[in-house]
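Anyone have tokens for O-fucosyltransferase family protein? Sequence:
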Amino acid sequence: MAKSKNNAKKVSCISVPSQKINSLSSSSLHYLFFSPKKPSANRFFGLKWYRSSRFWVLALFLCGFPGMLKLWYTPDPSVPFSPDPCVTSQSQLQESFSNRHTRQQLGLVSNDERNGKNDQEVGSVNARELKFEVGFGSNEVKNESLKGAVDFQGRISGGVEEDSEFWKQPDGLGFKPCLKFSGEYSKESELILEDRRKYLLVVVSGGMNQQRNQIVDAVVIARILGAALVVPILQVNVIWGDESEFSDIFDLENFKRVLANDVRIVSSLPSNHVTRRPVVENRTPLHVSPHWIRARYLKRLNREGVLLLRGLDSRLSKDLPSDLQKLRCKVAFHALRFVPPVVELGNKLAERMQRKGPYIALHLRMELDVWVRTGCHPGLNHEYDEIINQERRQRPELLTAKSNMTCHERKLAGLCPLSPLEVARLLKALGAPKSARIYWAGGQPLGGKEALLPLTREFPHFYNKEDLASAGELKPFANKASLMAAIDYLVSEKSDVFMPSHGGNMGHAIQGHRAYAGHKKYITPNKRHMLRYFLNSSLPEAEFNGVMKELHRDSLGQPELRTSKAGRDVTKYPVPECMCRDEHDDRSHE
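Reply: yep, here.
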């Protein structure tokens, strides 16, 4: 029996090669599977036994049987969901994803495949079908690996109906932005804005979205202390080497104008404060209250006139008085607007995505630093795993938390980013049509675009900013990771559906922004509870889809009260402090 060159074509059943079966007559096949009632002993041992067709069919079957047993009982190494999700080879996963037998195990078999259609009948598209649909510039797909990946164009979407239900937006329950500050807050503002003695300097670190969070906190701390805020200093990013300043990313004039009645913003220290030795604080505890801040800094700030704070990430409590929560929303959703060139390009790319209808935005966390920080493996191969392990050994401080957990334990606990195959399965289960256009945000994945093949095969209309924009449009932002992240942010925020493959500052910021904009659909993957269903290869597709929809029924961007759970950030959950319902809305009385 000839071995197939593609290991992924092995099937777990006893079979006879099709070329042999085609050469047999119907009577021979009958004798192969149904023995005669009483075989004649004399005839069997007679001189002409070798002329019997039944003998040769039986001999052929017996000769091939050991080989077929070997195929039957040899574990298929290409099954992507092994008991240990951290050791999956991406190349094996890639092969198995397109194999009908493996797809059936994963619950990804299309209706055509169930009806026994030949693989060639549901095959690939020609070169002209691999062009963009957004009507601009050079339309051809730029990356050759993606061209090869778009080979499922003509196939039904894995048994999931391509209806409009997926694009349906959650019920916002009538909540709308409302930032009405108290009378006491307004009175305090007059005194704060007149003060010329106290100044707050802050140095913010991390990526663009992490810096945004710290700037929000810096404004609130300045308000608590009654100090003027000097435009925040952005520390050079250790990962990307981005030296962008505040005014390179954010519209400084808008920042000052929006906060003019809350905190005085100055571009630099006045001359009579430059020579003063500031009070320096590098280790502010986590989640401190306004009372702690005043008790710790106010007396020294009044004496010295300048306070310098570093490392503000998560230092300010998330549970603040109502007026300060509203101030946080005002900074995050109104004051921190990107510079006009970034807004212009971000809006332009969003319009290109929208020309053919709704689109999904995915924030894929697959960069090297993400795998290093999370303590997880991408499931590509041992070479990439070793690159990650080596980086962790050299920089152990990058591993964020729970360093005693293995990769497998982290995966099962829902602490690892979703893989491209898991993203594809989840989207399909939730009803995303195969024709859906997807914008993916994020840095280049470890393993290149080939690592995305399981996702691009299922959703071929798959673009990022490099695909949508011309080289000339992106040139002003080259080597500026923060500005590139800002473009991703804008296109993602304007999408009809957004889903992150992992938590993080960008996902949290967009969740809050979409809620504040009217609770636009935002899918929060329930990784901790859904992973065991991904590992169950015997689960029928319809049942898998039903389980996924049930698990995510309340995770689609519906309004959630921040106060229902302690420690929630109001810029992620703006209800009820920053959003309220119209008194005339019937739903406000439910």
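The chain is about 40% helix and 10% strand.
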